[in-house]
Design brief:
The protein has one helix and four strands, in the order ββββα.
Length: 76
């Protein structure tokens, strides 16, 4: 995993359970040029399989799981 807090970027690799395929995940947090010191942020999440043309929905599932977890943390 690689984290660059100055740029707001997290890069990671996930390995699928069944076949051990590697998937790349990138999360970028951007303040969207907000004038009020970043009270509004954009979160860009990408998940891409390295191998094959189908992922059986795993990349979308991974993104939705991350969003659900982020919402849970921000609600506290």
């Amino acid at each position: 995993m690689s984290v660059d807090t100055d740029k707001g970027i997290i890069e990671a690799t996930d390995t699928t359970m069944w076949f051990g395929f590697k998937d790349d995940i990138v999360i970028r947090i951007n303040d969207n040029g907000s004038e009020d010191n970043g009270s509004e942020h954009l979160v860009d999440i990408r998940s891409k399989s390295r191998v094959g043309s189908r992922d059986l929905g795993k990349n979308a599932e991974r993104i939705h799981d991350f969003i659900d977890e982020l919402k849970s943390i921000l609600a506290k």
